[in-house]
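Batch manifest line 388
LIGAND: pyridoxal-5'-phosphate
JOB: complex structure
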Amino acid sequence: METKTLIEFVRDTYQTHDFIPLHAPQFHGNEQAYVADTLDSTFVSSVGRYVDQFEQDIARFTNSGKAVATVNGTAALHAALYQAGVRQGDIVITQALTFVATCNTLFHMGAEPLFVDINRFSFSLCPQALAEYLAEHAFVSDDGQCVLRATNQVIRAILPMHTFGHPAQLDELLAVCQQWHLVLVEDAAESLGSYYKDQHTGTLGGFGALSFNGNKIITTGGGGMVLCRDQQAGEHLKHLTTTAKVAHPYEFYHDEAGFNYRMPNLNAALGCAQLEQLPNYLVKKRELAMQYLSFFESDVNFREHCFVQEPEYAQSNYWLNAIVCPDLQARDQLLAQTNQAGVMTRPVWQLMHTLPMYQHCLRGELTNSEWYAARLVNLPSSPVLMSI
Ligand SMILES: *Cc1c(COP(=O)(O)O)cnc(C)c1O
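JOB STATUS: finished
ARTIFACT:
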């Protein structure tokens, strides 16, 4: 079996004969203490000091104007896109290689995703493909809106996703946005702790959305956060995601149709403790990625496989390690043999335009997306915290 050396390598790394998951949460810090504190105080719900603290800690960590906690990453995306001005009938350009939440959010807003190819090295929305698509299919109207020629719909924003934690080419994407009057919203659900040049992902566009789902680099059980570059937009977003209630000692007055997207204090307590661990996780995940890299560079069974590395302009959090197989057959063999041996691996998500609800969406050429979809495999990526 050709994958035997890989299976041995992963088992050696995690020092276990048990099932090895793709990514497991770990609680070795103040998690118990902070969560117990919310129970003792009875402040487990939508009000409490951990929510404020978690928002402030994330804003400081990412250096964003304001951070707004939400109930999950999908809700963070929805709120971010809404604050960015996306409305019913609008088009938002995104990538076909992403997790389905990116598109579901648009669908439920009555907006439509339009798929453009990914770049070969960033695995995220390709600035060149984007510029070419717009040049061929769009124009900027007299009132300064980017309009799709074929349907006269407004293209409001672009929504790149930092795949597996590897940052997109943000300077180039921002330049296209400026030329075409588009807002940049970043799906940074996978990229907490990843930097584009020296800026944290999710802070270069107007808005970025983080996720703290159980499989992400840190978790709150379920949770998300909107990173807002502009503090005032952030203040409004906080208002909007907390039912848009105008502060008053007892009256209920709401000045717009808000969302109840609040993260409970119980979850925020977990988040505060997890965030304390993040710097250590980042070190350990980079170490793990470098170990995979040297394994794949030296093992004779994997001469034709290529380990996915961060783009040269970026520092990635290496959330999910990935390997590019030579072809579909090699991919399927790797998936079957590793999973059979209790080492979890996974193909990349099926491309969005192949799912029933998004197959009718407009799209450009998706050559790189299709090429990678047939070859990418994610590998076990939990940080190895205990060395035995
Ligand atoms: C995890 C994830 C989300 C959604 O986060 P939830 O917290 O699960 O709602 C959105 N986009 C991408 C790319 C993700 O990986």
